[in-house]
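Inputs:
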Amino acid sequence: MKFFKKFILFIIALAALIAVLIINLKTGLRALNVIGFSFKEMALVLPPLFILLGLLDVWVPKEKMMRYMGEGSGIKGIILAIIIGSVAAGPLYAAFPVAAALMRKGVKFTNILIFIGAWSTTKVPMLLFEISALGARFAMTRLAIDIFGIIIIAYVLYIIVSKREVKALYYKAENL
Amino acid sequence: MEQIFNYIFNGFLYIVCIVFLIISFLKSREKTKKALIKAWKSFENILPLLLGIIFIVGILIAVLNAQVISKLIGSNSGFIGVAISSTVGAITLIPGFIAFPTAALLLENGAGYMQIAAFISSLMMVGIVTLPMEFKYFGKKISIVRNILAFLFSFLVAFAISKVMEL
């Protein structure tokens, strides 16, 4: 039963895919094609990412990370969060486990949110591609607004969410 | 083109990972083993959810292709077009190699910069399909508020980009 609950989303998605394949074979095959690509991306990015996170957990002392990105790290912590998010490879879902690892290392909550924002909007490989597809003016304007945007969103979230909730989140991250 | 950059970054990721693994192994076998066990556990932890999400994203991208989207956001669709494009962008999480050519195609088909900017912005920052995963790491409240804020923010981005592109 626990196994079933764990895979419930996958089972629903699989049923949906079969339904699409029956209704419209062409669309279904296109879906399969995209799934194949995403699967490859996942298989390529996640193993080294998780191994690096495992090494981070074991080797980097919490005090050190806290000094650079914890409470009182100020602008230095913000810039580090943006850099780590920007040089990352992989889709947004890969950022969540990294965020959990940062929580375990006592990184400030706003810096974690800024990291998530940077991962989603300022990634370098993505940006280069954006410039070639939509032009530098478009890409640079978006980048400039988004850097402000992710910091603002991080602080608005920080104001809305209570200290107790953040604490519960960090506690939960210990077991993820 | 993004593929090439991705390969370079992935290659870099692998090199960094292997170098650190070797250093770690030389320093302490015990700790390295612990790190690998941790890595495997957290991977195993999200795998079922991730598989489901990948399938759903695949189906959505296949159904919402460029032709369908460009029908929704015509040349003079204005604010409604912006609302539609950021909603389409919000639902799914489209990889860059599909998103940007789609955006360029939409531009050719008469969509304005405002709609495209809204589409790209919410595409990147808002992910309804990936919410189950975000819930797992950030809890329901923070995830939902973050996505709503990012969705609203994409309107601001759309407005600003359309102003800059008009200059």
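Chain A touches chain B through 82 residues (CB under 8 Å). Flag for discussion at group meeting.
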